[in-house]
DNA sequence: TGCAAATAGTTTCGTTTGAAACGATACTGG
DNA sequence: CCAGTATCGTTTCAAACGAAACTATTTGCA
């Protein structure tokens, strides 16, 4: 028979426990995973995550334009441009003008780039397996479905298009 | 009866499809969600995510030291220091020395800070609900468990302690 | 007590970031 | 054909980042 409390008709907590707040936990987990990946690719190949993503797309889909890379990596064009510049300097990527539309790039892998790509793939899967270790097949399938749903939902809530990199 | 292919005994793809790669998708989803949150808190209160996290912890656990904030927000001490400085300047947070140990801070909320905190809480839960819309109760529970397991796993793979912010 | 090591928090340093401005090229309607 | 607009990719800018250096204080131990 309490008299006080203006919002009794509300099942919502009036305090915020960060450690139980799903968006916060999602961010923390994602950043831990990204950090583990970043460290591996930095030590193994000297590649950052943006560079790694560009290599992953070119290994599969080359030739491709910078805009293609943007779509497939969820990175904005400035980030892609910078990553490509570094990869060209490293000798892994070729960049030339598209003769049919000179605004566009045509990106591809050099011989060295293809060699690196072939090493990148197994390390990626191995690291993925390490992260997912402790999850059974059903849980991995659940994670897959949840990420699909959350992606669709979050894409409508967030302004722009892509999905990478605030912080 | 093919003759070629050195790694036939391997069920692992030799190509990497980024859009099916769980760590990549986790990062994209997390960043979309973070961006949606960031935009809301920026427009509603002029708070960044680091500042928002500090407010969330202080609203619940004040008084607290900077190190306490570090633990509860998974942010490193430099980030916390900068966020607190901005919040003090904004008039939401008090920062004084701990008389028993002058190395430590004692942080708390001002009257304005408490007022903001009371507005922050419902917006946080409303946004969480928006993100989780489309998931039923069982799926939310699955997400909770999966994040717990992934967190434990990723924490052992990543070097340092915390879990925030490489991008 | 006194001195080395540890701890708390701030500041500095070089890098990376997203947004916006930009130059160059291509498309469009008149 | 030609102005106006849209698109592609790079560059610029200010802000934010992590790591490391740093100051101040406390603790451990001889």
* CATH level-4 homologous superfamily of chain A: Winged helix-like DNA-binding domain superfamily/Winged helix DNA-binding domain
Oligomer: homodimer
The N- and C-terminal alpha carbons of chain A lie at a distance of 47 Å
Low-confidence stretches of chain A: 1-8, 161-167
Number of helices of chain A: 6
What can you see in these coordinates?
- The structure is a homodimer of 167-residue chains.
- With 167 residues, chain A is mainly alpha-helical.
- The first copy, chain A, has one domain: Arc Repressor Mutant, subunit A (Orthogonal Bundle), CATH 1.10.10.10.
- Helices cover 61% and strands 9% of the residues of chain A.
- Chain A has six helices and two strands; from the N terminus they run H-H-H-H-E-E-H-H.
- The first copy, chain A, has helices spanning 22-45, 49-61, 66-73, 77-90, 111-132, 137-157, and strands at 93-98, 101-109.
- A two-stranded antiparallel ribbon of chain A has the order 1-2.
- The longest helix of chain A is centred in the N-terminal third of the chain and has 24 residues, at 22-45.
- The N and C termini of chain A lie far apart (47 Å).
- Residues 1-8 and 161-167 of chain A have low confidence and may be disordered.
- At the A-B interface, helix 1, helix 2, helix 5 and helix 6 of A face helix 1, helix 2, helix 5 and helix 6 of B.
- Chain A binds a DNA duplex (30 and 30 nucleotides) through helix 4 and strand 2.
């Amino acid at each position: 028979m309490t008299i006080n409390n203006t919002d009794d008709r509300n099942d919502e907590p009036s305090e915020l426990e960060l450690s139980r707040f799903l968006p916060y936990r999602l961010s923390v987990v994602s950043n831990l995973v990204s950090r583990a990946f970043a460290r591996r690719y930095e030590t193994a190949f000297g590649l950052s995550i943006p560079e790694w993503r560009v290599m992953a797309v070119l290994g599969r889909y080359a030739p491709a334009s910078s805009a293609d890379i943007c779509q497939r990596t969820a990175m904005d064009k400035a980030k892609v441009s910078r990553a490509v510049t570094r990869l060209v300097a490293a000798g892994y990527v070729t960049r030339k003008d598209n003769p049919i539309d000179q605004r566009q790039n045509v990106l591809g892998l050099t011989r060295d780039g293809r060699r690196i790509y072939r090493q990148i793939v197994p390390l990626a899967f191995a690291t993925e397996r390490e992260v997912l270790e402790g999850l059974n097949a059903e849980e991995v399938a659940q994670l897959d479905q949840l990420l699909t749903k959350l992606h669709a939902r979050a894409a409508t809530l967030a302004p722009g298009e892509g999905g990478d990199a605030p912080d």
